[in-house]
Amino acid sequence: MSDGVRQQIEEIVNRETRAWDTQDVDLLMTVFHPDMVWPWPRTPHSHDPMDWVIEWGRYDRERWKRVPNCATSLD
């Protein structure tokens, strides 16, 4: 992996950490790629991704910011 790619990855990881640490939803939203989908386990015990569901569909910045107890509740 080139140094440039490594630095880009580190910047994204650091930005996500900073977003969670500062409870900054707008900053967190910058981490997600526009083609991303966000799968969720059906239960806390659903460890097999084949059992997960995609409730939110494709990334939509404004809609994802409004989801209660998730991206908007950064605790």
> What is the helix/strand order?
HHH
What count of structural domains? 1
Helical residue percent? 40-55%
Radius of gyration: 14 Å
Write up what this structure looks like.
- Mean pLDDT is 81; it is low at 71-75.
- With 75 residues, this protein is mainly α.
- 1% of the residues are buried.
- The protein has three helices and no strands.
- The chain has helices at residues 3-22, 25-29, 61-65.
Compose a concise summary of this entry.
By secondary structure, the protein is mostly helical. Helix content is 40%, strand content 0%. It has helices at 3-22, 25-29, 61-65.
Sequence-ordered SSE layout with sheet pairings:
Elements: H1 3-22, H2 25-29, H3 61-65
Characteristic terms for this protein:
single chain, 75 residues, mainly alpha, 40% helix, disordered C terminus
